[in-house]
Every structure is written in C-alpha cells, then in structure tokens.
Amino acid sequence: MSKVVRFHRTGGPEVLEIDEVDLGAPGPGEIRLRVRAIGLNRAESMFRLGAYLEEPQLPSKLGYEAAGEIEAIGEGVTGFAVGDAVSTIPAFSMTQYGVYGDAAIVPAHAVVKHPASLSWSEAASIWMQYLTAWGALGLIGQLAAEDAVIITAASSSVGLAAIQIANSLGAIPIATTRTKEKRDALIRAGAAHVIVTGEQDLKTEVMNITAGKGARMAFDPVCGPGVEALAAALADQGTLFLYGALSGEPTPFPLFPALSKNLTLRGYTLFSVTRDPHLIELGKRFVIAGIEAGHLKPVIARSFPLAEIRDAHRYLESNQQIGKVVVTV
C-alpha cells in the first residue's frame, strides 16, 4: 500500500487527506515512481478548490511535479530502467494522474532523466516553472537581447524562472511586487528593475526604464483589473501573456491601449508546450542546457514533510514565499 494524497470534496487545504492506496503496477506506456520530493503549484490548489481548467473526479489525486526513482516500467516503455533518477513534466491531466504521495504512476512521456547535479527537491521544481516561462517568452514571444519584459507575481517560482530566462537571453526583466518587502530579494534573484505597484505607477516607471518606448512583453498570472496598467506600459505591437487568474476579479479588455498600440493579448498555459512532443523536446533541451550552464537555478522557498501537506498548501496560498514550495517524502 502507498500513502497517496487525495481529496474527497473540494475546498481549502483541510480537505487534503493521506490515504492508503494500492496503486498496482504501471499499465502500458506508464512508469511507477518511488517519490522523493514533490513541487507544489498554484494550479493544484485551484484544482483542489474546484476552480481550475478541469473538474476533479472525486476522490481525486493531484500534483504535477515529482522527483524520485523508477520502481516499475509498463509495457512498451523504452529508454528507462528500474532505479533511474527521474522527474515529471506537467504533461498529463490531474483527472487521470497525480504525484502527491510516496509513490505515483505517471505516463512515460512525462518522465525525464534530469541533470544529476540537482537534489531531489530541485529536480521536483524545474519543469512547471521553466517550461511555462520558456514557452511564452522564448518560444512564442521570441524574447531577444535588450527587450524589456514586465514580470508580475515575480516572487513565484514561475516569476523567478522568467527572470532567469530573460537574463539568459540578454533581455531586461522588470519585476513587479505589491509591497517593498520582496524588493531586495527580487534584485538578488536577477531582476534588472523592481516596481513596487503599491507605491509606484507601473506605466510611469516602465516608460522611465525604457526611455519612453514601453516594454515589448508582459508575463502575467494575476489578471483582473491590473491588465489595464500592463497594457498601458507596453510598447507598440507589444504582447501581454495572460497565464493565470490569481486576482479572482473580472479581467477587463484594455480596448484603447490595444487599439492605439496594436497590442496582442494572448491567453497561455504550459499545455501549449506539453501537448506537443516536439515542443516538449525543445523545452527539455533548453532547460537542461540552462541548468548545466548555470543560467537556470531553481529557488526553494520552504520544504515540508508529506505529513504536513495541508500546511504546505496553506503556505503556498499565503504568497509569502520567494520561489518553490516543496514537500519531501
């Protein structure tokens, strides 16, 4: 029997339970992992709440990112062996699979042999953040040297990944934070500029930084009313990537900035990358090369044991963290 985190009803962190479950053997095209570490994501807390892109089938597992050793391999799986150290890419539906637990069965196409230099916690913290940021900024947006990019929720794991990727491409990462408490940490994390939106006007500051041109791109998981300020701070023919709904408020369409500056407002999720095997391969190569070169380095905000999964979710939702929240098993 395995210890598997599930929820039998939607709601807050209190609905998470550690159940004894017989996972069985992996089926065709699947791999069974002995999980050593789990990387937490806001997508999972939204799924737990019943407010995500897909509806949970109760009782539901959850979780996209884990690292551990292969325990068993299903029929038709090649390129892996029992005992391999691997991590998982969010390339599956949580209505079918989940990695919260001391063991997990996952589709083989979502399993990667990560760089040996990474700890279990680091290996469980790379794919969601780096592929999400790379897919928008590097792949679709073609961010280039000297391009300015506004990164909101910059202290999140994806926000920090976007800062690192922007720097690796020679671009200018402009991080935003609501309060000044995280300003110094964001500068240390590589942000070229930090705008404290609770005290400073976003458009004014971005225009000062860019000599009046505006930013070529904005990367925003918050949405809500703040998209109007982001649109106003973009350059002519700029792109605003919308990849989340942390605000919880209605998101207005910034009509006049969009018209006057020929803006592109693009909805985006990681699955734009992970549903395409070719793009997954490109993304894997980019991330592994960045890690090996030292350009990309996951930041762990705090670790919790599996028994404290509820507290880990409470901390995830507190917005106190700078970097990734991890559960060790």
Which terms would index this structure?
single chain, 11 helices, 2 domains, Quinone Oxidoreductase, Chain A, domain 1, Rossmann fold, alpha/beta, 329 residues
How many separate domains? 2
- The average pLDDT is 96
Q: What's the oligomerization state?
A: single chain
Q: Looking at this structure, what is the CATH superfamily of the largest domain?
A: Medium-chain alcohol dehydrogenases, catalytic domain
Approximate strand percentage: 25-35%
Distance between the amino and carboxyl termini = 15 Å
Enumerate the spans where pLDDT stays under 50 for 5 or more consecutive residues.
none
β-strand number: 16
Name the CATH class of the largest domain. Answer: Alpha Beta
How many H/I helical runs? 11
Largest sheet: 7 strands, mixed
Percentage of residues in helical conformation: 25-40%
Q: What is the CATH topology descriptor of the largest domain?
A: Quinone Oxidoreductase, Chain A, domain 1
The SSE string, one letter per element, is EEEHEEEEEHHEHEHEHEHEHEHHEHE
The 3D shape can be described as: globular
Question: Structural class of the helices, strands and pairings?
Answer: alpha/beta
Concise overview:
By secondary structure, the protein is of the alpha/beta class. The protein has eleven helices and 16 strands.
How would you portray this structure in words?
With 329 residues, this protein is α/β, with parallel strands linked by helices. The chain folds into two domains: 2-126 and 299-328, Quinone Oxidoreductase, Chain A, domain 1 (Alpha-Beta Complex), CATH 3.90.180.10; 128-271, 3-Layer(aba) Sandwich (Rossmann fold), CATH 3.40.50. Helices cover 29% and strands 27% of the residues. The protein contains eleven helices and 16 strands. Strands 3, 5, 6, 7, 8, 15 and 16 form a seven-stranded mixed sheet that branches. It has a six-stranded parallel sheet with strand order 11-10-9-12-13-14, sandwiched between helices. Helix 11 links the parallel strand 15 (300-305) and strand 16 (324-328). The two termini are 15 Å apart.
